[in-house]
Amino acid sequence: MDYETLQAFEFYVGAVDRGSPALSSQALVHVVVLDDNDNEPFLLYPLQNASAPYTELLPKAAEPGYLVTKVVAVDRDSGQNAWLSFQLLKATEPGLFSVWAHNGEVRTTRLLSERDAPRHRLVLLVKDNGDPPRSASVTLHVVVVDGFSQPYLPLPDVARHPTQGEEDLLTLYLVIALASVSSLFLLSVLLFVGVRLCRRARAASLGGCSMPEGHFPGHLVDISGTGTLSQSYHMKFV
Q: Which compartment or compartments is the protein found in (predicted)?
C-alpha cells in the first residue's frame, strides 16, 4: 500500500458459532495507512537524463553572491518526509561556490581570480527529511566567460529591425508621397471642372449672338445708318 494513493479504508468482520440456533456478530474495522519515506527526491531542473551535460555560464566580473543557477526538486512523499535540503558535495574550487540549503540556489562566495580554473564541476546532493532519509545527486558544469554581450546576443535579429531614426525618415517619406498624390488628384479634378465650365460659357455666348447665314432680301435696307432695317413700300396706280 502507498500512503500517497490510499490513506485509510474500512471493512466488516463477522463471526458465527456452531450452536443451535447459531449466533453471530460483526465488527467494523477501520485501517489507517501510515506514511513511509518510500520516494526519493526527483530533480526537475536540471534534468539528469539529457544526452549532453548541463552547462552554466559564469562571467569573470561576477560579484560575490552572483546567482549561477537554481536546482529544483520535488518529493512524492507527504509531510516532513517531503521536506528537501541541498548540499554541495564536490567542487573544482571548493571555496568559490555555495548552495543555499533550503532553496537550491548556487551562488558565488567571492570574486574570481586569474588562478581559478575556466571550467568547474559541481556535485550537489538533494536529501529529504524522512527516516531513514532518501537522496538524489545532480552534477553541474560551470564555464567562466568574459561576458554575455558579444557571443550570446542574437545579433542577426537585432540587425533586422530598423533604428528609430530610420523609422522616422521612412514615415516622413510616406507622408510626402501621400501629400503629393493627393495634391495631384485635387489639381486634376479642379482642372477638369474648369474646362467643363469654360466650354459651357463659350457655348452659351455663341448661341446668343449667332446670325443666320445667307443674304438679306433686297427690299430690307438700312436707311438710318444706325444698323436698323427698314422696309420700302411701292404703290402701283391703275
A: Membrane
